[in-house]
Amino acid sequence: MRTLNQHFINGQFVQSIGTDVQELVNPANKKTIGTLVLGNEHDVQLAIAAAKEAFKSFAKTTVDERIQMLQRLHDAIMAREEELTRAAVEEYGSPVKPSKGRTTFAALTCLYAKESLKRFSFEKMQGTTKIILEPLGVIGAITPWNANYTHICNKIAPAIATGCTIVLKPSELSGLQTHLLMACIADAKLPAGVVNIVNGTGQIVGAELVRHPDIAKISFTGSTPVGKIICKDASGTLKRLALELGGKNPNIILDDADFSKAIPMAITIAFSNTGQACHAGTRLLVPENRLDEAKELLKQAVASTKIGNPMDEDSVLGPLVSQKQYDTVQRYIQAGIDEGAELIVGGLGHPEGLDEGFYAKPTVFAHVTNDMKIAKEEIFGPVLSVISYRTEEEAIAIANDTVFGLAAYVSSTDMERARRVASQIIAGRILINKAVQDDPYAPFGGFKQSGLGRDSGVYGLEEHVEPKAILGYEAH
Ligand code: NAD
Questions:
Q1: What is the enclosing helix (H) or strand (E) of 210?
Q2: 151 CA distance to ligand 1 centroid (A)?
Q3: Distance, CA 301 to ligand 1 centroid (Å)?
Q4: For a 10 Å CB count at each end of the chain, is N or C smaller?
Q5: For the whole model, what pTM was predicted?
Q6: Helix or strand or coil: residue 465?
Q7: Is 115 one of the catalytic residues?
């Protein structure tokens, strides 16, 4: 049992002023593994003051200096890769193999920001006007639990790259992981006050960041309902906002697709991170005349996807993060049954022999219509809704008939056709014949209620600067 009672403020671990506690639970066996002391407004205010002071000199650092810092942060994370991965398995329940992949990816995020920084111009001339892209100031970042290291690094790295300082509130369900990441940040020897992390709840620590006048921008990753609250609360100080929110992403299997590849891949896309992924493709659009074939292949693909102890090397899916998340998933499975969808795999309750943790059955429904709850709402668990269509136009219309617009997938043997379909889908990122997000420099973010702004590459850096135009130069 560990008690984690420190924040990382002004380059140091400091004891929390807030005294409320949150239990940290291993989702694979429901055992308490530690307690996290939650910060309050005073902790946040100290962190903001440190970040504000640090910004004065950090904004003036050179690109080269910041390149070195990003490299150091990458190296510090990789030096603790095993320890970080173990904590993610224990606290979050993600199986060891994908957990390791995500730890490495978090470190790589720093190198991607470094490469983007090398290509970024902070100044340009436009006729007789000089345009300077100035760092915004202190960024307030708020992150979720579903890929703790990645989300934190995705906020810290572009802030460092652009000369901004940051106060970050991670998820209160990720205390153990965050504590180790704070140690990496300390190891990286960044200037004091550049990166500050305050543990706490959204309602107290998160809300203080959102309303504080010294925060220039809120960079939030989380659910759409909380994104909407933040939008309202940030309006009092007219803060800049970047909101990376939820999705109900369509995966269109065109009628000429190679089903032997596309259907198993659809399971990977839907159940990635045990379905707790914003980019999960949870609406599978299948041509009506090939539905039976798809159903058979879906059953086989689920049967060969091992759900089990996250410590096992061959587990692909693990438990859900919490009792709350497990209950939510159960409610949606019940809703699918009540609304008359055909349950073809899974269902209510735990998979056989896995009732000691928050394990849900990987579940697939067919004959789903786009007006059902399980087609409209983000579930954030291993539940896939199969919707059939008759024509390509109908598939595109169904794909776009959603309040979300984060990601989408298209499978076809005809690349020109797949690209044509992809271009008509309203979503921030569309993958053709692949499950892996393999371009770290491509913008990531959502249309419609999936958010505002973009992460990644140069687009992610642009979110952290404000253009200033100085008119009065000589024409060249
Ligand atoms: P959540 O919205 O409940 O919480 C996210 C963060 O916001 C947490 O740190 C929480 O403490 C904080 N928060 C809660 N209420 C707040 C408030 N009133 N003011 C300020 N902060 C507040 O989301 P979650 O359950 O942690 O994560 C799952 C959600 O995140 C899903 O909807 C998923 O789609 C989304 N997500 C989106 C992306 C993306 O890149 N688009 C990536 C990962 C997760």
A1: helix 207-211
A2: 11
A3: 30
A4: C
A5: 0.97
A6: strand
A7: no
Protein residue with its CA nearest to atom 20 in ligand 1:
206
Range(s) within the chain of domains with CATH label 3.40.605.10:
2-245+450-470
Residue among 55, 70, 69, 66 at smallest CA distance from 215: 55
Task: Point out the ligand 1 atom lying closest to the alpha carbon of residue 226.
Answer: 2
Per-residue confidence (pLDDT) for residue 148, from 0 to 100? 98
**Residue limits of CATH 3.40.309.10 in the chain:** 250-440
- Confidence band (pLDDT; 50, 70, 90) for 154? very high
Q: CA 423 to CA 44: how far, in whole Å? A: 43
- Report the nearest-CA residue for atom 15 of ligand 1: 202
Structural domain 2-245+450-470, CATH architecture: 3-Layer(aba) Sandwich (3.40)
- Mean pLDDT of all residues in 18-39: 97
pLDDT on residue 1: 79
Can you read off the two tokens belonging to residue 188? 């990286």
pLDDT digits (tens, 9 = 90+) for 101-153: 999 999 999 999 999 999 999 999 999 999 999 999 999 999 999 999 999 99
- Give the distance (Å) from ligand 1 centre to CA of residue 222: 2
Residue with tokens 């650092």: 61
Average per-residue pLDDT in the chain? 97
Is 65 designated active site? no
- Rounded to whole angstroms, how far apart are CA atoms 215 and 220? 13
Q: How far is the CA of 269 from the centre of ligand 1 (A)?
A: 21
Mutate to test the pocket of ligand 1, among 22, 172, 173, 223 (most ligand atoms within 8 A of CB): 223
Residue to substitute in 91, 173, 221, 228 for testing ligand 1 pocket (most ligand atoms within 8 angstroms of CB): 221
* CA–CA dist 344, 365 (Å, integer): 6
Instruction: Please compute the mean of the pLDDT values over residues 420-437 and round it to a whole number.
Output: 97
Give the per-residue pLDDT at 396: 98
Q: What is the C-alpha separation between 186 and 8, in angstroms, rounded?
A: 9
Helices assigned H by DSSP within 309-435: 323-338, 373-376, 392-400, 415-423
At 27 the pLDDT is: 98
pLDDT in tens, 282-328: 999 999 999 999 999 999 999 999 999 999 999 999 999 999 999 99
Structure tokens at 192: 């004091």
* pLDDT tens-digit series, residues 368-385: 999 999 999 999 999 999
Q: Is 18 helix (H, G, I), strand (E, B) or coil?
A: coil
% of the chain exceeding 90 in pLDDT: 99
